[in-house]
Amino acid sequence: MKIILMGIQGSGKSTQGNLLSKKFKIAYLSSGHIFREMAKEKTSWGRYVKETMNAGVLIPDSKTIQIIEEYLKKPEYQIGFILDGFPRTAMQAKEFTHKIDNVFYINISDKEALWRLAYRNDIVREDETIAAIRVRIESFHKYTRPVISHYKRKKLLVEINGQQSIKKVHQDILKHLKVK
Ligand code: AMP
Questions:
Q1: Which of 53, 91, 154, 176 might form a disulfide with 61, Cβ 3.0–4.6 angstroms?
Q2: Can you name the CATH fold of 2-176?
Q3: pTM to 2 decimal places
């Protein structure tokens, strides 16, 4: 089972990804998580990733593609994966050649995303300032919308209403899974 989860920051992708991962015993991989780990490295790359993330802008495509492809070669991803946060640009989608079963776009409004992120107090992240969140929302519309169109054309995309309870969103995803 190979799944891609898409959605604006705050849409609940990681919550849903972790639920699916537990249910189907398939590894969950978040590009944001990978970059957050890299941002801790005391190297010039680590510092670059940290600054880029804190500004809310994207890491260059070529580097991102290379890193994700390397990760997906690991044994734990061979039976399948749930990918959160990648691909995020048309170029990433074009270069990513793994055969995907389902792409879920968890849709919430920008207003709801800002509201959820500004008022959530469970996780405090350095890259979650209101300014960075706004840049990320804009970047989603600019760069990630074409990815949605890409998977729509491939008839892989299912849009899920993300403004429902966690349980209902999970159920909606399960209803549309092609491979169980
Ligand atoms: P996220 O947790 O998915 O919101 O990702 C946090 C940050 O990591 C983003 O704001 C980007 O700086 C970087 N990032 C995550 N995924 C990607 C990607 N697919 N392409 C480029 N940058 C990414």
A1: 91
A2: Rossmann fold (3.40.50)
A3: 0.91
